[in-house]
Specification:
- The protein is an alpha+beta fold.
- The chain folds into three domains: about 1-70 and about 215-390, BirA Bifunctional Protein, domain 2; about 85-195, Herpes Virus-1; about 395-510, Rossmann fold (3-Layer(aba) Sandwich).
- The chain is built from 18 helices and 23 strands.
- The strands form seven sheets. The chain has a seven-stranded mixed sheet with strand order 3-9-10-16-13-12-11.
- The mean pLDDT is about 95.
- Bound molecules: adenosine-5'-triphosphate (ATP).
- Adenosine-5'-triphosphate binds near residues 264, 331 and 377.
- Adenosine-5'-triphosphate binds next to strand 10, strand 13, strand 16 and helix 13.
Length: about 500
């Protein structure tokens, strides 16, 4: 199946089963805005819970926060967002489509990378086990030429984007003969900066002071509360503050489903450290975060690190964790070393000291910050897209299955009576009422067992429990595993502990 087709299938599956709906759909939707349905909200909450527990519950020196979306307008002047939170945009005059200039260049590089991968795959096919990939990459003339091309483009991107040299960015697009994917022409406008913040007005004030912004990141709510939390929580450096919340960006191009939205949710953690120790912590958090992802079992090969070509105005090191989405490898999470930029800026603009007295050093300083920032919606898409499978079964039929990590699944178990008589429904409800004290459960008695199993497979329910004639005789039920489709007969008394051992989030946190 083509990857882009795969995305279309995922979008329609997500809608059909109540995971994600286009926002205000009865009015034909609003671009790049989505609503999470009855199952989507469960999956989303479980992802949040996995993140929150890993950060706050499992780390003595990390605490949580829930700051307001509206902040004093000076916050965004201080943080640099008013002046520098821009994306370079370019329009194609023929198609009238708008693009991010940096994304056009990144996609150009991606295409060359794909050529290298193609050459490698050809080699593997031809030489099988004898194929030495490293040697091939180091010596094949085609590969070397393409690698040099990538290096050259990256160098020129760094040079132009890094200095906000918009004419240079335009020239690079022209030199590389990049065409508009829609019109196929090179008829481009000049490159312009576009600020991504949404603004609105405060009701009680008039004039310029009334303009406030919808936060484009949750991080600033953490910085302005640094001292409140440090003092009231008696936190010692190094320590972190974690927050989950909405962020808003007026994205130039917002396609690709919930990957890029104008209203989205972030899970961010700012870790405050001694100046000079930030690189150690930067490496630490890169390792911690990739381990967090790995435990979900979505496939090691689906992740890669990508160092930033253009560092943001506040960073001295930054890497993305990229995930292999249906559209290819794209940013899922950022780990950034933000230096003391934010706290220093807020000191300057607020006139308040934002420092820590380090008793071991007997010294006051503005801490340095290492940030981990992941988009909850992108994480949702990563989980959903890598779990979505169509399997051929032995009898030549097909089943659609969401092999979600069990701890994240919306329902952990579905309880079903084999028939609607002989006391089966009553027994099934009795079992469900006991299990639902711990887990989100579904009850399903409509249609044949086969159809009911398929329905639960399609929404990722890890276990189905069936009450049948034997249940009424010996207090046992069958429990069916979503992935293997195997059924075991177990005593009802053992059910809770069997399910708990398989779906518990403890398995991920340990
Ligand atoms: P991109 O380069 O894709 O625009 P970014 O580098 O601007 O992303 P950050 O500012 O580092 O993103 O934001 C941290 C995280 O927030 C990202 O890794 C991503 O998961 C998420 N995120 C950012 N913008 C969006 C968006 N428009 N929609 C959904 N998630 C987003």
């Amino acid at each position: 199946m083509q990857k882009e087709d795969n995305l279309k299938d995922i979008i329609s599956h997500a809608k059909e089963y109540g995971f994600v709906f286009p926002s205000s759909e009865i009015y034909d939707g609003l671009s790049a805005t989505y609503d999470y349905g009855q199952l989507g909200v469960e999956l989303k909450n479980n992802i949040k819970s996995y993140w929150w527990k890993s950060m706050v519950q499992m780390n003595e020196n990390i605490v949580g926060l829930d700051s307001a979306i509206f902040m004093h307008p000076k916050t965004w002047k201080a943080s640099g967002h008013v002046d520098a939170f821009n994306d370079p945009l370019i329009d194609n005059k023929d198609s009238k489509k708008r693009y991010r200039a940096d994304v056009l260049l990144e996609e150009y590089i991606e295409k060359i990378r794909a050529k290298i991968d193609k050459d490698v795959n050809k080699g593997i096919k031809r030489f099988g086990d004898d194929f030495d990939k490293n040697q091939f990459l180091a010596t094949n003339p085609n590969v070397l030429r393409n690698m040099a091309k990538i290096e050259d483009v990256e160098e020129r991107m760094k040079d132009t984007l890094g200095k906000d040299d918009l004419e240079g960015v335009y020239n690079l697009i022209i030199d590389l003969e990049i065409v508009c994917p829609v019109s196929g022409t090179k008829n481009w406008t000049e490159v312009r900066q576009f600020n991504l913040m949404f603004s609105t007005e405060l009701g009680s004030v008039s004039g310029d002071a009334a303009t406030i912004y919808l936060r484009p990141e949750t991080a600033q709510g953490i910085f302005v509360n640094f001292l409140n939390v440090q003092k009231t929580g008696r936190m010692k450096i190094p320590f972190g503050i974690a927050q989950i919340g909405k962020a808003f960006r007026n994205e130039i191009v917002a396609r690709q489903f919930i990957f890029r939205m104008r209203e989205f949710e972030q899970m961010e953690m700012q870790f405050f450290v001694r100046p000079g120790e930030e690189m150690k912590w930067y490496e630490h958090w890169k390792n911690q975060r990739i381990a967090w992802h790995s435990k979900l079992g979505l496939g090691e090969e689906n992740y890669r690190f990508h160092d930033h070509i253009k560092l943001a105005h506040y960073a001295n090191a930054a890497a993305d964790i990229e995930f292999n989405f249906p559209m290819g490898f794209k940013e899922l999470e950022g780990v950034h070393s933000r230096t003391d930029f934010d706290l220093k800026q807020h000191e300057e603009h607020s006139g308040k000291k934002l420092q820590f007295f380090d008793p071991e050093m007997n010294q006051n300083y503005v801490p340095y910050v290492v940030e981990t920032s992941i988009g909850l919606d992108r994480m949702f898409l990563a989980v959903l897209s890598s779990s979505f499978k169509t399997e051929k079964l032995e009898n030549d039929s097909e089943r659609v299955v969401l092999s979600l990590p069990a701890a994240l699944a919306p329902f952990k178990v579905a309880v079903m009576p084999l028939t609607k008589k002989d006391g089966h429904p009553e027994k099934a409800r009795e079992i469900m009422n006991a299990l639902r004290l711990e887990h989100n459960c579904a009850y399903d008695e409509k249609d044949s067992p086969g159809k009911r199993y398929r329905r639960q497979d399609a929404i990722g329910t890890p276990y189905c429990v069936m009450v049948d004639h034997q249940t009424m005789e010996d207090n046992t039920v069958t429990i069916r595993d979503r992935d293997t489709m195997e059924q075991d007969r177990v005593s009802i008394d053992e059910l809770a502990s069997i399910i708990e051992s398989k779906v518990s989030m403890t398995n991920l946190l340990r």
